[in-house]
Amino acid sequence: xxxxxTTHLPAVSPLLSYWTIVILSLCFxxxxxxxxVFDDIEAIVNNHDVYDTPIWEIFKNDxxxxxxxxxxxxxxxxxxxxxxxxxxxxxxxxxxSQDYHIVNIILHSINSLLTLFVYNLILGPDExxxxxxxxxxxxxxxxxxxxxxxxxxxxxxLCTLFTWVSILLYNCVIYAKNSFRAWIAMSxxxxxxxxxxxxxxxxxxxxxxxxxxxxxxxxKIYPIDIIKLLLFKHxxxxxxxxxxxxxxxxxxxxxxxxxxxxxxxxxxxxxxxAPKFQAVDNPASFMNSIFFRILNYNYIYCxxxxxxxxxxxxxxxxxxxxxxxxxxxxxxxxVVIIFWLLFGMLIIYTFxxxxxxxxxxxxxxxxxxxxxxxxxSNIFFNVGFVLAERILYIPxxxxxxxxxxxxxxxxxxxxxxxxxxxxxxxLIILLFTRSWTRSSQWRNEKLLFQSALDxxxxxxxxxxxxxxxxxxxxxxxxxxxxxxxALRLNPNYTQAMNNLGNLLRDDGQISKAINLFKxxxxxxxxxxxxxxxxGIAQSSLKQYKxxxxxxxxxxxxxxxxxxxxxxxxxxxxxxxQYDKALKAWINATRQKPTHRRAWxxxxxxxxxxxxxxxxxxxxxxxxxxxxxxxxxxxxxxxILGKKGKYEEAEIQFKLAIxxxxxxxxxxxxxxxxxxxxxxxxxxxxxxxxxxQLKPDLSSAKENLQKLYTLETxxx
Length: 715
Description:
Radius of gyration: 32 Å
Helix content: 55-70%
Number of helices: 34
Distance between the termini: 114 Å
Low-confidence stretches: none
Strand content: under 5%
Shape: elongated
Largest sheet: none
Number of strands: 0
Number of domains: 2
C-alpha cells in the first residue's frame, strides 16, 4: 500500500499558505461597492423581515418574507441568513448595499481558509501540500461569483462556514480524550449542522460528509469492504474492528438520528408539502415523458460539471430559453452518454480492489461534490430553477480537491513538476482574472443583465430584466422593446405582460394595457398585481364598477396588499364616497404603517371635509411612523394656518423645510402664512425662494405681485 502521493510541486509554509489564500480570495473585491441587484431587491430591499417584522415572525416566513403557509411560498427556509441581513440594518438603521457586499467578501475569505483546514483533515499531515493547491483553486474559482457578489448568496456563504466548522468539530469528537469532550464536540457539531441548515437547506448534507469522513478516512473502510459484507463474503480485519468499535458505531448512529430529527423538523415547517413552481421555473420537471425528463436532468448535471471545469459562460439566470429541452434526437444526448461513461469509470474505480490513500481522498472529494448537490438535483423533489451557479459553492470544494489530486498524480507519473506548476499558476491567474471581471458585472443591474445577453440571448427573463432596469432609469422606449422581445420569446410570460401593460397605461394606451392585464390574469388567475393594475386602468376609463371588482379580486388573492387598498381609496374618492375612501386608506396604513400617500390623502380629505381636529390627530399619528415625511408637517402647517395659529404653523413649515428643503410649495405656502400674518418682508423672501426653485410657480408669482401692490398702496 502506498503511504503517500508522490509529488514534485513545491511545498508552502503554513503562514504563507494562509496569506496566499486570503489574498487570492479577494478576487471578488470588485463588487464591494455594488448595488442591490436582481434577487437582492426581493430578498432584502422589499423584504420587511429585514427591517421591521417582529423577530419571532421571521421564523414563520420563507427567505422572501412570505408566510410558509402561503400557497405561493417557495418554502425556502433560511431565517439565520435573514437575521444576518437584519443585523446590518439594525447597526446602520439603513440598507447600505456596500456593507452587505463587504461582509460577503470577508465570509468567502474565511470559507477559503476553512476549506484548507478541512482538506488538511481529509488528507492528513503528509499531504498538506495538496490541501494548499486545492484551497487556492477554491478561493479563485469564478463559479463562486454569484454567491459572493450577489448579496443573497450570503445563504451559501453562511451555510458553507457552518458546514466546515461542523466537520472540524466532528473530527474533535473522533479524537477526543474523554467522553465529556466528545459529547461537547458532538453537541457543537450538531448545532453547527442545524445552523447551516437554517442558513441554507443544503447544510443538512454536512451529516453525510461527516459520515463518509468517519468511515473512509478515519476507519479506512473502502466501498469494496461494504459490498463484501452485503454479499455475505469475508470482510477484512479493519472492517471487523470497525463493527466492534462502539465509539465509531455510536457516532454514526448519532449522525443518523440528527439527520432524522432535522429532516422531520424541516418537513414539519413546510407542513409536509412541497413548493409549487411554474413550468417556466424548471421546464424539464413538467415534461410528461419520464425518459426525457430524466435525460434533461442529466444534461443539466453535465452543464454543472462543465461550469466547474470551464467557467467561461456565467449567467445570473438560466431559465426561459437558456437551456432548450431535449425532446427528441439531439446531439446533446451524446454529451450525457460521455459524461456518464467518464463519471461511471470514476465510480467503478472507487469500488475496485486496489486500495490506497488516493482512493480514500477521491471518495471524500466525490462526497463533497455530490452530497451538497443532491437537494438541487431534482431527484428527491422538483426545484424552482434550471441551473444556479450559487448552489455549486460547496460542491466546487469537492471538484477542486479531485482536480488537484489528478494534477499531482499526473505530475508524478510523467515527471513534469515544472510544467505542472507552470500550468497550475497560469490556471490560477486565469481564474482570478475571470472572477475579477465577472464580479464587476454584479456591481449594478445594467451590467449584470447586459452580460447575460452574450450567454443566453434567447432567455426571456434576461430581456424582461433589461426592460425593467430600463424603465427604472427612464428609458421607456427601450423598456417597451425589451418587454415585447420577452413576450416574443415566451408568449405566456405574465410578469412581462403586466409590466408592459403599466407602461402602455402610463402612455395613454389604456385599451392595449387592459388587454395585456386580462391576458396575464387568464394565464395566472391568482396574479394579484395584474388584477390591481387592471383596476387602475379601468378606473381611468371611469369604469368604476369593473374597477372595484378587479380590486376586490386582487385582495382576494393577496389579503395583505396595502397598495391595492390605497388605489381602492382613490377609486372611492373619485366617486365622492368619502367614508369608503377613508376606510380603504386606513386598511392600507394598518398593513403598511409607512404608506406615505395613504396618510397624506387621509389628512387632506379630512381637512377638505372640515374635520380639522380629526385631520390634526391623524397627522400626529402618521408622524409616529413617518417622522421624516415633509408632506405631513406641510399639511399640519396649512391646517394650523387656516385656523389662525400662525406661530404653530410657522414651526411646522420650518420642520417641513428641514425634511425637504427643495420643495417650492413649502416656501410658497410659508410665504402666504407670513403674508396673512403681515410679516411682508419674510413673505417676500419666501416667495422669492419658491421662485428660485421653480421659476414658473404661478401662485408664488401672483402672491409676490400682490405683495408689491400692497406695499405700493401703503406708501
